[in-house]
Design a protein that fits this description.
single chain, binds glutathione, 4-stranded mixed β-sheet
Length: 211
């Protein structure tokens, strides 16, 4: 398999963890999201993903999959061990809710395109953009801190899709120096996950395109 990725992309980070947990080998195709206004905007990448975002997973059969949550669910259905979404319907809804809280409600507000728009089209200064970034992480984390179990993972004693979303979002928060002392459960889940080799190997600094 082939994963179009960028070392700092938290959406790609989620998929890297899933692939590692399931023991699936893949080649990384780095797509630099910053250099020259973003190599993701080049026609050759647009031909792969018209949305011009990473991650993109190309399966061994040549199928092209986009959107990290859809990719992870595909991997979970095709390679069920270890299961990232519980079989129990109610438990599965709870895991998806936490994953979506991060992937749909926090992450899009911190993404490269909206941040660039704030800067270039709306003329916002960097300190206002950083305040925006921090605000949406803190607001989301306040809810997440209440909802997660931290026992030791977000939804109990098994790693789930919720953890695959939480760890990359914490990495973003740390990079932007968001204070995390109000969120001991989130910090605890992050620590427990990063002790697992699959999470550690997926970290931005351990990627072939890391800078
Ligand atoms: N909802 C998408 C988000 C994908 C996404 O926005 N990826 C970011 C990197 S984390 C990206 O490629 N950004 C490029 C841009 O915004 O121009 C997913 O979960 O895969």
């Amino acid at each position: 398999m082939k994963l179009y990725s960028y070392f700092r992309s938290s959406a790609a980070y989620r998929v890297r963890i899933a692939l590692n947990l399931k023991g699936l080998a893949y080649d990384t195709v780095p797509v630099h999201l910053v250099k020259d206004g973003g190599h993701n905007k080049r026609p050759e990448f647009r031909a792969v993903n018209p949305q011009m975002r990473v991650p993109v997973l190309v399966t061994d059969a040549g199928d092209v999959l986009i959107q990290s949550l859809a990719i992870i669910e595909y991997l979970d259905e095709t390679h069920p061990e270890p299961r990232l979404l519980p079989q129990d319907t109610l438990a599965r809804a709870k895991v998806r809710a936490l994953a979506e809280l991060i992937a749909c409600d926090i992450h899009p507000l911190n993404n490269t395109s909206p941040l660039r728009y704030l800067k270039n089209q709306l003329g916002q200064p960097q300190d206002a953009i950083d305040a925006w970034y921090q605000h949406w992480i803190v607001t989301g984390f306040e809810a997440l801190e209440t909802l997660i179990e931290a026992a030791p993972y977000a939804c109990g004693n098994r790693v789930t899709l919720a953890d695959l979303c939480l760890v990359p979002q914490v990495a973003n928060a740390r990079r932007l120096k968001v204070p995390l002392d109000k969120f001991p459960k989130i910090v605890g889940v992050d620590k427990a996950c990063l002790q697992l080799a699959a999470f550690d190997r997926a970290r931005p600094e351990n990627q072939p395109d890391a800078e």
